[in-house]
């Protein structure tokens, strides 16, 4: 997915104020990250290439962003003591 389309989908997802969302290529997929501006909380979601192929790239990214938004609204988990974030995985059925 190109950056402009991703940013558009992030805007449509309407994350709460103070939450930054980014995408990072990772092996066989993308890691989508929702993090607090202060960096003290966040959540990663691995969107596998298999899921993107099965559902279509746009719908898969949209569903993944919706799940991250739910977590952001509920309250992102704190960064672990080792500096890592909790991670969800969106795989192909």
UniProtKB/TrEMBL annotation:
Designated name of the protein: Uncharacterized protein
Origin species: Deinococcus metalli
